[in-house]
């Protein structure tokens, strides 16, 4: 039997800083929600709806860049470190193009993005300018993501984490400065300014890396992943993540159809779940990097061990998070909003959110492991089934038709995640020990 490496320590060393960076991303969103919820609670629905379409475009474009991480790590396994710099530069081009296109589409759509789905003019009108400001932040955030994916592939995730948390301080300060006077739109401008800082500092840091020459950061003409190779990974991930984000935004629309109080509660619960999900995403990223590197070394048994280790560590982390949420349910509700009625509703829903954490985390780790070994489209089709077909239909039926409101939406998330996790884990079990075709394309 082939000898395999132990991967617990390697995964934790990489996943820790990666998770911190991902927590920083959602930390910005939490600050936005908490500051608006405390200082301008009547504008929480406007903020929630403004974020709904923004999240779809942003998450889809982030998926498009996943090839930077996967293929940069694979070039290291193939003993071609300068290829990582090629992946970075081409990823930055994709980030800029995708970000500007996303922002343009949101500006062209305007208020129709909301009214087309049955949102009343009283909510759609004030939500539209919030969305249009947030759209400006998308290209900036995508530049940061491309840079972060490169750093994670070369096992320097701490840089992205440090810059992200510095940007969180900027975001908090600007929220406290602008929200009291400008409400949700002030919070949106704080996000834009924080992301200017975020992308600018990170890219300068990468350019000045001491071992940048080793990784081809400043070298033109090196051999590495082509645009088509990056897109072969990224398009599948983009479709998958767009479907998932679109489905969650559709759930926000369902909440908006029921009423402003429901959409506020749903946005806060989703925000809390997303915070915990960043831990799972950190483990998923670390798993993808180590699986990709093993595939580059043509070591399928190491790839299988890395994948199963990531899946197991995620289970432990999600159980711990669920227990913490249940223990501090009332305190969490009061921290999010000054509205006592809304805070009590949030506390009563914490057990449903805790229930969904493990399957939601398991599906993202399994999907990342599969894509890292070249199985790009199966996770996409799985996500379409679970999140685009099952979840919105079930959410509509439970929340609107059965009158369960926010609880119905959360149960829909739970069952969709169970379905997705089950399908992807079975796929990983079947394919884990097979060596995929080496499809890396170079110039």
Automatic annotation (TrEMBL):
Source domain of life: Bacteria
Single GO cellular component term: plasma membrane
Annotated transmembrane regions: 7-31, 51-72, 92-110, 130-151, 158-178, 184-208, 268-291, 311-329, 335-357, 377-399, 405-426
Compartments reported by the entry: Cell inner membrane
Topology class, membrane: Multi-pass membrane protein
Molecular functions per Gene Ontology: antiporter activity; xenobiotic transmembrane transporter activity
GO biological process assignments: monoatomic ion transport
Keyword annotations of the record: Antiport, Cell membrane, Ion transport, Membrane, Transmembrane, Transmembrane helix, Transport
Keyword Ion transport set for record: yes
Keyword Iron-sulfur: no
Major site of localization recorded for this protein: membrane
One Pfam match: MatE
Name used for this protein in its record: Multidrug-efflux transporter
Organism of provenance: Terricaulis silvestris
